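Worked example 4.2. Below are the chains of a multi-component assembly; read each line carefully before continuing.
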Amino acid sequence: MENDVSELTSLTLAEAREGLKARRFSSRELTQAHLGAIARARGLNAFVAETPEQALAMAAASDARLAAGRAGPLEGLPIGIKDLYATKGVHTQACSHILDGFKPPYESTVTAHLWRDGAVMLGKLNMDEFAMGSSNETSYYGPVASPWLPPNWSGDKARAALAGDKRGLLIPGGSSGGSAAAVAARLCLAATATDTGGSIRQPAAVTGTAGIKPTYGRCSRWGIVAFASSLDQAGPLARTVRDCAIMLGSMAGHDPKDSTCVDRPVPNYEAAIGASIKGMTIGIPREYRLDGMNPEIEALWRRGADWLRAAGVKVVDVSLPNTRHALPAYYIVAPAEASSNLARYDGVRYGLREPGADILELYENTRAKGFGPEVRRRLMIGTYVLSAGYYDAYYVRAQKIRTLIKRDFETVFADGVDAILTPATPSPAFGIGEMGSADPVEMYLNDVFTVTVNMAGLPGLVAAAGKSTEGLPLGLQLIGRPFEEETLFSLGHAIEESAGRAPFPEPWWG
Amino acid sequence: MAVDLATVRRIAHLARIAISDAEAPALQGELNAILTFVEALEAVDVTGVEPMTSVTPMKLPMRDDVVTDGEIEPQVLANAPLTEDGFFVVPKVVE
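Applying the procedure described above to all two chains together yields the following structure tokens:
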């Protein structure tokens, strides 16, 4: 049977799964359609390494298992993998120059789970270097362009920018910018991502996709290049909340190789999609209403609450008084942990090596050349706040504030609130090259609504919730109790349904 | 707390990142912008608050004290930029 190729790439993960089961098409056809889309979309720069041979081999194996009636939950479904995940024998460089040529001899636990369940790997996705960024502009491999056209841009103008330095095209968010762009451009059915301060949720919001950062400990961090170990968590990005639920069901699960990974059963997350939300209570935290807030974001937030109210959810005002301290505290904790984690890149054991007269010069030259400006900045801040005489004033104080932030959430949840509804980002996507060049803090403010969730280790989901007046996607965030991702899937699906599923942009890029 | 140029050079050295004299002033400005941003935390009352050590309440699991891998020298060295006779190679450390 002949299948229209663009039809195959427009399917959701759930629809593709049903199509494979019903034998309407093969995994080989589905995978080839996506490989073709990837080849035509190279201008977007979403993939940093394509693995077509591996993809087709995995698809053939999936087709055999489908025929034999031994299909796994993700059998034959082609997905993309963020470059932060170690994939055995395949390009894994955290989009940094310092990991030049690195091919791990092992597989991350999360990707191993995905392959165990039958998923097909299309390649590795672009990201901010070491996941440090909110726009995918710090990648050694260059920025990723969002498939969404800037307001009032023609396809011709956008194609010209794509062939040049991409300035003015929209950012896909970061750090999981390649994941978000690839999913929105229909280059893969879903993608893995990671979230240390908002790196799944902010890209999801600005590309009209869905993403979830699960509770800290839900997914194994083993084999994922470490940024800030007490904040890092793996999660999926996909075109619908249901697809995220399907992905997380495979990604999550206990792993003795990560001592912070919890040993508790993985629920059937997909069963939460469409479950009744009547009688649930959501909180609206007043501290998230910022001075000078974008009125469109505020209106979207109100609309989201109205949708849930109409579905029988009780909406109450809540207070999280330490919210405004979260972002500054994050910029102590995360760089401190990064400075420790990234000490391993020494030019001796793997990756880039820049010669020096002695061992110290070898280290210093390698790290100066191998790390980009944003990573260097954060490593220096981290080194400073951990240095003798400053440790208590900065690091210990920030960890105390983290306790206060977590306590705020615990109080609200103890009062009977099932989830908290907030904006996901302060604005729709901005243009490549437009932000943060003069002051790094300007860029950091993009994570103002998402970073509290990492500081408290909670699950946070972003669902597409509509468009700005200029036609750019906007998302809303739901924050849940620890290990109650199912509540977020139910509520997030309701938001997505109320907003109406808007079409993704037509492929102007090629 | 703002950092001066000498401190910027000291931090860079502690972080093992070479910086040129030309780069230092710009880095100083960026680091001070971040330090100014986090300054607001000095005003927060944290009296009697325990610093967070684990975001989820869990006991560190202990495994049996046994060897679980090893004898994988080629794998360990496979990604090294310079090796010789099964060793990583570095500039002479001891004269």
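Take a moment to check your reading of the output against the notes. The two ends of chain B are 41 Å apart (CA to CA). The longest helix of chain B spans residues 24-38.
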